[in-house]
Amino acid sequence: MKTLSVSHLLGIKNLKLEDLHLIFETATHFKEVINRPIKKVPSLRDITIANLFFENSTRTKLSFELAEKRLSADVINFSSAQSSINKGETLVDTVNNILAMKVDIVVMRHPNSGAAHYISKHVKSCIINAGDGTHEHPSQALLDTFSLQEKFGNLTGRRIAIVGDILHSRVALSNIYALKMLGAEVRLCAPKSLLPKHIESMGVSVSTDLMEVLNWCDAVNMLRVQNERMELSYFPNTREYSQNFGLTGERLSQLRKKIVVLHPGPINRGVEITSEVADSEQAIILDQVENGVAVRMAIIYLLASKLNIPLK
Ligand code: NCD
């Protein structure tokens, strides 16, 4: 059986192209499974997974939990709002206490960049990064690129734009790694203040002109402005941001071709994307959500198969 080159999923940066292909192949199989009348497989019956969410999340948490249940794993959930972290416990102690209950895999979201790497060095468990600060969100990039591949077949030479708050977005960074690995061309579009300095060194181009970028691309991934991560004001006001960087039906209708529209959610309707566009047939936002479960099943299954616990 083919296996992943890693034993944790910390970021796309740590993966190889063969890992992406293996995850996509496995996800395609699981997508077929979850569309059957009986959506469950017994594979992970002897595996226990803890979902540790130290930051708010709706879709990623539900998606991981559903993926784990579809694989028949035992699942425990923990969110920091109700935890002893508020009583002064360190992250390593919290995680080690949970592992003492014989947990095999930890899915963790944390507001600090690097938290998943740190934990993987200090505790004995398989770690899946479900988003660490402004750093990486690998499962999101895998489901985004999986959804794009479903649309286009192959991403070699495809032009993919990422528009919005690149500076604070872990989705952007993970997508850049994944898209580049798969051979796509990537262009970023944002106000100058929301573009990280020297980002071109990642082999991407940048622009502050939305119409130019939309005319260039085959697909556009629209990102939310991450107000919760901003200490400063990065643009004058939301109305001006929408006027310059919002995706509207009118803008799409001026293009020569129909481009594919993605959004990782949560959507701020009327800010980075209008309802008209979000609900249009060009948007694959709900396909992304559906694929998210299959891709996360693939990630968990492939990492679990490296654990010396026989899978069913
Ligand atoms: C993203 C995240 O949390 O980084 N959302 C998600 O995982 N569904 C993007 C965002 O919050 O804007």
Topology diagram in text:
Blueprint (H helix, E strand, L loop, with lengths): L16 H18 L13 E6 L5 H12 L3 E6 L11 H9 L5 E6 L4 H8 L3 E7 L5 H15 L6 E5 L6 H12 L3 E5 L15 E3 L2 H7 L2 E4 L15 H8 L3 H5 L6 E3 L12 H4 L6 H20 L8
Parallel strand pairs: 1-2, 1-3, 3-4, 5-6, 5-8, 6-7, 8-9
Bound molecules: N-carbamoyl-L-aspartate (NCD).
N-carbamoyl-L-aspartate (NCD) binds next to helix 2 and helix 6.
In short:
With 312 residues, this protein is of the alpha/beta class.
Structure in words:
It is built from eleven helices and nine strands. It has 312 residues and is of the alpha/beta class. The strands form two sheets. It has a five-stranded parallel sheet with strand order 7-6-5-8-9, sandwiched between helices. A four-stranded parallel sheet has the order 2-1-3-4, sandwiched between helices. Helix 5 (138-152) packs across helix 6 and helix 5 (138-152) packs across helix 11 (285-304). The radius of gyration is 19 Å and the shape is globular. Bound molecules: N-carbamoyl-L-aspartate (NCD). N-carbamoyl-L-aspartate binds at residues 59-60, 131, 137, 140, 170-171, 224, 226, 264-265.
Keywords:
38% helix, globular, 9 strands, binds N-carbamoyl-L-aspartate, alpha/beta, 4-stranded parallel β-sheet
